[in-house]
Amino acid sequence: MATADVECKNCAARFAAATGFCSRCGQALAVERLTFRKLLADAAHQLTDTDAGFWFTLRQLTRRPGAAVQEYLRGKRKAYTKPLQFYLVLLAVFFGLTELLHLDVVAIRYRIMSQSGLSWFSRIFATLLDPSGEDTSRQVLALFQQNIKVNYSLLVIMLGCTLWAGFRHRGFTLVEMVVLALYLVGYKYLFETAAMLVMITPLGPESRLSVGSALLMLSNGYLWWAIAGFPDKITLWSVVRALLLLLATGMLLHSFCLLIISL
């Protein structure tokens, strides 16, 4: 008895449903909607899988991040590295290189932020959230820098929550927005790694500071651009919406830091 043909969500080829797998690209027929359980299971299975399309994923997130993540969420997953795996690999590269080269991430990042003027973000949020605290901005910045590993993990969670608030009317779930955050914050580590490595180049102190601050600004600019291009093409409204979502994420992080300081 003949079985019905179905279309592969990854490559659009037709194949017999009874086989369970696409004969062209090998992707499984059953592509469930993402859940936290599936996200963790995929990461545990593929964390050390070097053939999972890491360079393809990196290239797509460089050229068209919003569209690439949208493809992944719609089921075109065969060629992409899983989101948690991608995030953890770049996290390991960042902290592995800084440990290997004996770079003090906290001290370097604090110096770049404070001396280049990038700490104005902290001052703005601290003033909005606690206008009476004169030293609040310095305390928030210091707390963030001293707990940078924890705060980067919090950034994924809080960015995922604000993205969900901004896109749930489009039918996206919280876990799908955490997937978007994992890819984008993982890519952000590339800029952070480059900013750290600049500190060991033969450039002069002022030049290292300028390049480092430019890379940190580019990392935030990347997030803005990527979110503005998700899930559709970039428009004036999507640019404004992306900025508002990033500001909301920043306020959530600073609110958390203020809560810790007040305890």
From TrEMBL:
The chain crosses the membrane at residues 84-103, 150-167, 174-191, 211-230, 242-261. It comes from the Bacteria. Pfam families: DUF3667. Keywords: Membrane, Transmembrane, Transmembrane helix. InterPro entries: DUF3667. This is DUF3667 domain-containing protein. The lineage of its organism: Bacteria, Pseudomonadati, Bacteroidota, Sphingobacteriia, Sphingobacteriales.
